[in-house]
Amino acid sequence: MRMRDWPADERPREKLLSRGAIALSDAELLALIIGSGAAGATAMDLARGCLEHFDGLRGLLKAPPAAIMACPGFGPAFAARVLGAGELSRRALRQKVMRLGTLQSPNSTRAFLHARLRDLEHEVFCCLLLDNRNRVIAFEELFRGTIDGASVYPREVVKLALAYNAAAVIFAHNHPSGVAEPSTADERITRRLVKALALVDIRVLDHMIVGDTACVSLAERGLL
């Protein structure tokens, strides 16, 4: 049966418009992005098959375009829509963190960093730059590494902070292993950065380690 022949309260589009997006399942939301079925399968059939193939939404959103296009019934247009939707979500989180006003929500910061860094297959060291009222000036990815780590150079961090006239910074990097526990090397480079930035009166408010299911704060651990 075609989706247009389903009862109105079961069709994803009508369900969303009458009850809100939160009422839809992952498959129903994905079916809206797919739009129409193919080869005897409804958009819901394709959505369920896609989620099963990629083991859920997270697997789909981190998949490369070629892998998405290789799924039966999908092509470049679908891959572009799905990956574009994922990027919109990450940008919305970034805007929430970087909107004008004092940085008042550690949870929003964690959510943004988690969404941005968790699924990367290589380590990335980043910096949130803040003014003297803790308003976010910018977010910069500073260093990239392999699956094992990234080399961090305090001199380059100091140059960046001075270029933005930052009063404080929050560092973050991901662990591609998925384990968010800070390593001895993480603690060591954090101490070096704190000392280097202190020489130019810039405070380090935190260093967050992003793992698969957690975002660990070195400040909360008393390691700053």
- Element-level helix/strand string: HHHHHHHEEHEHEE
Q: On the 0-100 scale, what is the average pLDDT?
A: 83
Q: Residue ranges: pLDDT <50 for 5 or more in a row?
A: none
Number of discrete helical segments: 9
Q: Summarize the biggest pleated sheet.
A: 5 strands, mixed
With strands numbered from the N-terminus, the spatial order across the biggest sheet is: 2-1-3-4-5
**How far apart are the termini?**
61 Å
Quaternary: single chain
- Estimate the strand proportion: 15-25%
Tally the beta strands: 5
Helix content: 40-55%
Shape estimate? elongated
SS class: alpha+beta
Rg result:
21 Å
Can you walk me through this structure?
With 224 residues, the chain is an alpha+beta fold. The protein has 9 helices and 5 strands. The chain has helices spanning 12-19, 26-34, 43-53, 57-61, 65-69, 76-98, 106-117, 154-163, 184-198, and strands spanning 124-130, 136-144, 168-174, 203-210, 215-217. The chain has a 5-stranded mixed β-sheet, with helices on both faces. The longest helix has 23 residues, at 76-98. The N and C termini lie far apart (61 Å). The model has no long low-confidence stretch (mean pLDDT 83).
